[in-house]
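Exercise 7. Given the encoded structure of a 297-residue chain, write a plausible sequence.
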């Protein structure tokens, strides 16, 4: 027996969701545990270099298993045609129309939900997933006030490219508050409540750095202004070492050093970095000076 495990993440024009991938992995683990040879088919867009359907020879496999998702559409019907000689089984799927050719093409359908059948728990709940660092990402806009020292676009492009290569859960955050937009926070307390639950903050914003440190979360700060400006200055005010500055001169080369980012990323996630995050408010010296100027103390 040689089994090809497929799902919506297998199709070039399909969609890879976490649930789909976990369900396919659950099938692979069960088959491998039973000593069955099996391969997973991935879209070349989702997993470049992996086994895709074009290279998964129908003559090699005895069975095709389709895991998770709804059974409908021409892509599943094409799967039936391509692997017509194989025994085809769907598992953990949603059946909307039992008469759909995408459904009837299977030799067996083990549904998670279908008309007149009791629902069963989804396969995505089975595989154990490792924990990875949760990184809040807080990026600054262009900040035109810095004129030709602005490097925001290049810094953001290089920073997010670098961050995409880290094994972490990336959570985009915005310090803007707007009660009209559900995607934004309404109050600062909402933002800070999220920050406290993170492992690290990656930011090009001054307040991304300040609010992370206030809440005891290490921050990898990148000042997007050539030569450094308010982000680097704030890092100095907090005696926080994990700050990266960019050159003043414009060059055609990359302006962020991946090795430097790697170093501070590892440091922020280490006990030393976590232990250095202050987790207390600023000293209030500026407010004291304000009171003196106003003569109210």
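Solution.
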């Amino acid at each position: 027996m040689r089994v090809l495990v497929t799902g919506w993440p297998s199709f070039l024009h399909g969609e890879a969701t976490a649930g789909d991938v976990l369900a396919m992995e659950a099938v692979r683990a069960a088959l491998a545990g039973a000593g069955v040879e099996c391969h997973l088919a991935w879209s070349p867009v989702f997993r470049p270099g992996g086994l895709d359907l074009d290279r998964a020879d129908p003559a090699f496999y005895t069975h095709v298993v389709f895991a998770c998702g709804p059974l409908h559409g021409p892509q599943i019907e094409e799967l039936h045609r391509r692997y017509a000689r194989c025994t085809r089984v769907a598992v953990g799927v949603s059946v909307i129309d039992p008469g759909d050719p995408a459904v009837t093409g299977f030799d067996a359908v083990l549904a998670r939900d279908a008309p007149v059948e009791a629902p069963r728990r989804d396969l995505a709940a089975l595989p154990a997933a490792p924990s990875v660092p949760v990184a809040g990402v807080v990026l600054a806009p262009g900040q035109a006030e810095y004129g030709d020292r602005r490097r925001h676009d290049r810094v953001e492009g290089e920073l997010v490219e670098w961050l995409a290569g880290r094994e972490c859960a990336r959570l985009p955050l915005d310090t803007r508050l707007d009660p009209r937009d559900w995607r934004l926070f309404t109050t600062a307390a909402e933002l800070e409540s999220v920050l406290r639950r993170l492992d690290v903050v990656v930011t090009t914003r001054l307040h991304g750095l300040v609010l992370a440190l206030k809440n005891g979360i290490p921050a990898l700060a990148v000042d997007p202004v050539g030569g450094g400006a308010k982000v680097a200055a704030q890092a100095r005010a907090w005696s926080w070492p994990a700050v990266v500055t960019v050159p003043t001169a414009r060059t055609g080369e990359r302006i962020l050093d991946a090795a430097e980012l790697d170093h501070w990323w590892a440091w922020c996630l280490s006990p030393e970095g976590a232990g250095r995050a202050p987790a207390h408010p600023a000293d209030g010296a500026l407010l004291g000076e304000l009171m003196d100027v106003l003569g109210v103390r």
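Remark. The first strand starts at residue 2 and ends at 6. Students should compare their own answers with the one above.
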